[in-house]
Write a structure and sequence with these properties.
The structure holds 2 protein chains of 2 kinds. By secondary structure, chain A is an all-alpha fold. Chain A has 10 helices and no strands. Chain A folds into 2 domains: 38 residues, no CATH class; 212 residues, MetI-like fold, CATH 1.10.3720.10. In chain A, helix 9 runs antiparallel to helix 10. Helices cover 35% and strands 26% of the residues of chain B. A 6-stranded mixed sheet of chain B has the order 6-7-8-3-9-10, sandwiched between helices. A 4-stranded antiparallel sheet of chain B has the order 2-1-4-5, covered by helices on one side. Chain B is an alpha/beta fold. Chain B has 2 domains: 134 residues, P-loop containing nucleotide triphosphate hydrolases (Rossmann fold), CATH 3.40.50; 64 residues, no CATH class. The chains are: A mainly alpha, B alpha/beta. Chains A and B meet through helix 7 and helix 8 of A and strand 6 and helix 2 of B. Chain A: It comes from Actinomadura darangshiensis.
């Protein structure tokens, strides 16, 4: 397709979808799926415009972002550290690997009761669940990246006189970054799923809590605004991870063209 | 530079990987400051011998010694230059050389200029800021030579280091190696497939076989003698 034509086509596709949405909701269409109580795009836009005037909207966003970033940063740091440790040390592997294998299949959101029992405050529980969600993708991808590292890089630094810590800082950590960022991207995705779900179950603030609350008080445009905000925040944070990853792994052969 | 070359010695050494023996009962002495060239058919254990001297591969039996002490691990004294690309791909050519200088204890402020000087000596001063993927295979190998020499090791273990270079660059790298060794004597164990290179560089040439040293020629050896020794062990044209 002609390059000039592609952007108008993409835009037209989005606008057509919005127009179709507006039409079926305005006509209160009831086929097998029912649009008679479903808010249309204009309702959602009005509700959105109303909400951004209120401090509460921004407070909820700040709350959710604080939770996800605390959980995510903890998961990134511990996931990389323990991933490297279990891949490079037999002792660490034997001590920790069985624990991880047992805990890993449990969906983080199923840990809500555990979090409520363990932590004195709601807030810590939600951060814990977010952490648990993002931790395993980071851990597993780090471990695989360490094992896949070409041995010659480490051998070269060792025969130049580099010790264990040099190898760790100069070879292992930079070398695993491409793999780690794969895990961080996935981790950010599941962290959002879990922070929103946890807020819906046990929060008293946050975008997830607000979205669920809108549903319970039959404020359907409010529900859709919540969903759109979640989507937007998720996209922004994932893009930030992606961008950081690309910045830090410019040396990869595939990055030459971009 | 850190004094004279190391004395390397393999005593009845059997070397191999995970139960597979590559070379058995090897006895070999390398004098301080000597350039020993090792020839032999593929798979005869030339690289394995270098890894053992470097401390990357413990002997299955027998002993590997450096200055009379058993080799138990790697050391800044014994640098290994690999036949394929061993540069860190996220560091520019200059920063790869700087790493060797840092490991040698050169103060931070002096590393940059020293690294560029080394790159100039291998003819890559202009490429200092490039990443390994932006360099050709031969250029990467020259950066590796600069990195290895910059580390100032007492023994340089070289595994077909110039195999990827064109004839002209190869000749200038060989000259550079001899120049550097004249300033800073080091023991060199040099593995190659190229008999002419062996005769040019080596104080002594040994031909390695599965049962250790198969033939030995003190310099100046005749090319025909060396070729005959290789031909007697292998069918391949060297």
């Amino acid at each position: 397709m002609n390059g000039l034509l592609r952007w108008p086509v993409r835009l037209a596709s989005l606008l057509a979808a919005l127009a179709a949405w507006q039409l079926v909701t305005a006509a209160d269409l009831r086929l097998w799926v029912r649009f008679d109580r479903f808010p249309g795009p204009l309702d959602v836009v009005h509700e959105f415009a109303r909400q951004i005037e209120h401090g509460q909207f921004w407070q909820d966003i700040a709350q959710s972002l604080t939770r996800i970033l605390s959980g995510f940063v903890l998961a990134a740091v511990l996931g990389v550290a323990l991933g490297v440790a279990t891949a490079r040390s037999k002792w660490a592997g034997d001590l920790l690997q069985p624990l991880f294998e047992v805990a890993r299949p449990i969906p983080a959101i199923a840990l809500v009761p555990v979090a409520i029992l363990l932590f004195p405050a709601n807030e810590q529980g939600i951060v814990f669940i977010t952490f648990a969600a993002a931790f395993f993708p980071v851990l597993v991808s780090t471990r695989h990246a360490v094992k896949a590292l070409p041995v010659v890089w480490e051998d070269a630094v060792r025969t130049l006189g580099g010790g264990r810590w040099r190898v760790l800082a100069q070879v292992v950590l930079p070398g695993v970054l491409p793999g780690v960022f794969g895990g961080l991207s996935i981790g950010m995705g599941v962290a959002w799923i879990c922070v929103i779900s946890a807020e819906m179950i046990s929060g008293d603030f946050g975008v997830g809590y607000r979205t669920w609350q809108a549903y319970t008080i039959v404020d359907y445009p409010g529900v859709l605004v919540g969903m759109a905000v979640i989507g937007l925040l998720g996209w922004l944070t994932s893009a930030a991870v992606e961008l950081a990853g690309r910045r830090l792994t410019r040396w990869l052969p595939g990055e030459e063209r971009s | 530079m850190s004094g004279d070359g190391l004395v390397l010695r393999a005593e009845d050494a059997t070397l191999g990987y995970g139960g597979r023996t590559v070379v058995e009962g090897l006895g070999l002495d390398v004098a301080a400051g000597e350039i020993l060239v090792v020839l032999g058919p593929s798979g005869c254990g030339k690289s394995t011998l270098l890894r053992a001297f470097a401390g990357l591969l413990p002997a299955v039996s027998g002993r590997v010694l450096a200055d009379g002490e058993p080799v138990t691990g790697t050391s800044a004294d014994r640098a290994l230059m690999f036949q394929d690309d061993a540069l860190l791909p996220w560091r520019t050519a200059r920063r790869n050389v700087e790493l060797a200088l840092a490991l040698r204890g050169v103060p931070r402020g002096e590393r940059r200029a020293a690294a560029v000087r080394w790159l100039d000596r291998v003819g890559l001063g202009d490429a200092a800021g490039r990443l390994p993927r932006e360099l050709s295979g031969g250029m990467r190998q020259r950066v590796q030579l600069a990195r290895t020499l910059a580390a100032g090791p007492r023994a340089i273990l070289m595994d077909e280091p110039f195999g990827a270079l064109d004839a002209q660059t190869r000749a200038s790298m060989q000259r550079l190696l001899l120049d550097v060794l004249a300033d800073a004597p080091a023991t060199v164990v040099f593995v190659t497939h190229d008999v002419d290179e062996a005769l040019l560089l080596g104080h002594r040439v040994v031909v390695l076989g599965a049962a250790g040293v198969a033939a030995e020629f003190p310099a100046p050896a005749s090319r025909d003698e060396v070729l005959a020794a290789l031909g007697a062990r292998t069918k391949e044209v060297v």
